[in-house]
């Protein structure tokens, strides 16, 4: 299958077909081969563009997206993901109630599950976020870090490593 035409190629095709429609004399019209060279497309693509031009007056087909309309939009998806990241102990049933209260949208549990998997919000990730927010774990980390020497805690980035390597030589 041939790759889709980009916006520049579509503009050139639109210009060529409009020029051919506006030109009265047959000698001044562009041939199919000339248009293919200008637009950099195949004969089949040019044929499809001509059919679309004759039918709609433009080279791009204006059609609606197929399938059923989405119940949950992008902003709702992001809000739902942020809800789970902010409240890691929330259940899907509570999230359903939240969507109904805040946005007046009723979706299924599978939809929420698919949104979370799309944004890679897994149970493991939520456990990790919850562990980071646990104050007892933070105190434990601070106590372990307090016992270490400052040289053990330094992490050099690549530029600092090269500088320190040159100084040793």
Give your account of this protein's structure.
The chain has 169 residues and is mainly α. The chain has 3 domains: 7-56, no CATH class; 74-132; 135-168, no CATH class. The protein has helices at residues 7-22, 32-39, 43-56, 74-86, 92-103, 109-118, 123-133, 135-147, 150-153, 158-168. 8% of the residues are buried. The model is unreliable at 155-166 (pLDDT under 50).
Chain-wise SSE layout:
Elements: H1 7-22, H2 32-39, H3 43-56, H4 74-86, H5 92-103, H6 109-118, H7 123-133, H8 135-147, H9 150-153, H10 158-168
Count of alpha and pi helical runs: 10
Helix content: 55-70%
For the residues shown, what is the average pLDDT?
80
What is the count of β-strands?
A: 0
Structural class: mainly alpha
Low-confidence stretches: 155-166
Write down the secondary-structure element order.
HHHHHHHHHH
Distance between the termini: 58 Å
Strand content: under 5%
Task: Give the domain tally.
Answer: 3
Shape: elongated
Query: Main beta sheet, described?
Result: none
Please tell me how large the radius of gyration is: 30 Å
């Amino acid at each position: 299958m041939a790759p889709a035409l980009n916006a520049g190629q579509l503009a050139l095709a639109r210009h060529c077909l409009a020029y051919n429609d506006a030109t009265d004399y047959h000698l001044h019209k562009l041939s199919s081969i000339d248009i293919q060279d200008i637009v950099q497309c195949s004969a089949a693509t040019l044929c499809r563009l001509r059919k679309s031009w004759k039918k709609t007056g433009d080279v791009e087909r204006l059609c609606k997206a197929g399938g059923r309309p989405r119940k949950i939009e992008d902003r709702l998806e992001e809000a739902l993901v942020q809800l789970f990241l902010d409240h890691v102990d929330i259940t899907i049933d509570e999230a359903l109630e939240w969507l109904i209260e805040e946005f007046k949208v009723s979706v299924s549990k599978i939809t929420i599950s698919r949104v979370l998997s799309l944004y890679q919000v897994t149970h493991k990730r939520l456990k990790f976020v919850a562990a980071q927010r646990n104050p007892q774990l933070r105190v434990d980390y601070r106590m372990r870090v307090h016992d270490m020497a400052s040289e053990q805690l330094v992490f050099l980035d690549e530029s600092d490593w090269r500088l320190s390597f040159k100084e040793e030589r």
